[in-house]
Amino acid sequence: MEYTKQPITLAEQLNILKQRGLIFEDEEQAIAVLNHISYFRLASYWRVMEENSRIHRFRNGSRFSSVLTLYNFDSELRSLVFNALQHIEIASRTKINQHFAMTYGSFWFMDSSLAANEYRYNKNLESLRTELSRCRDEFILEHFRKYDSPEFPPSWKTLEVASFGTLSKLYNNMNDFNLMKRVARDFDMPQHEYLRSWLESLTIVRNYCAHHARDG
């Protein structure tokens, strides 16, 4: 079936919601909101108020102000979580690099003998190549202006621009479990398996926050 719907004005969007039973205390304010927050972004917050999801009919008493309350709560919660995750991410970068660099040298992440899985090792290096190629931080640009070997900057530079997801995958693919355990103990965790799971879960949460996911 071909999609044939055309864009509609903000006033028309509001009228559709009114026809479906959503109550507006202040229509001018609602238009102003729709001018800054798209209809389909807000739709994720009013779906819980629908009594019929097929025809999008709202339950009696459903109000646009309640939609905004849910949206604002979600926005504030995301900001709090994201701020906390930043501190965890920075500490993870620092501690993982400190332990592995001091034990295996500046380019430990390039050492295939330290990898538990060769396929994941190659995927991780490919992710680092992509992230470095996109990076415009001066310390990375300066490094490549000055050095052309090895392929990557040392770990304390490379890991600083790696995504949290890549950092998590690098740690999770190491085969020195004793050293991994030392990193975990810096976070008051008894075993590296706990930190592995922790980093994987926090990566997912961080991505939800960063990409403004409304469900999951």
Please give a structural write-up.
- 64% of the residues lie in helices and 2% in strands.
- It starts with 9 loop residues before the first helix and ends in a 6-residue tail after the last helix.
- It is an all-alpha fold and 216 residues long.
- The chain is elongated.
- The mean pLDDT is 95.
- The longest helix is centred in the middle third of the chain and has 41 residues, at 64-104.
- The protein has two domains: 10-62, no CATH class; 72-210, no CATH class.
- The chain is built from ten helices and two strands.
- α4 (64-104) packs across α9 (177-186).
- A two-stranded antiparallel ribbon has the order 1-2.
**Termini gap:** 29 Å
> Reading side by side through the largest sheet, how are the strands ordered?
1-2
Shape: elongated
Mean pLDDT: 95
Strand content range: under 5%
Entry summary:
This protein is an all-alpha fold and about 220 residues long.
Question: Which structural traits does this protein have?
Answer:
216 residues, mainly alpha, two-stranded antiparallel sheet, 2% strand
Mind sketching the topology for me?
Blueprint (H helix, E strand, L loop, with lengths): L9 H10 L7 H8 L4 H8 L3 E3 L4 E2 L5 H41 L13 H17 L3 H9 L8 H7 L2 H9 L4 H10 L5 H19 L6
Antiparallel strand pairs: 1-2
Helix pairs in contact: 1-2, 4-7, 4-9, 4-10, 8-10, 9-10
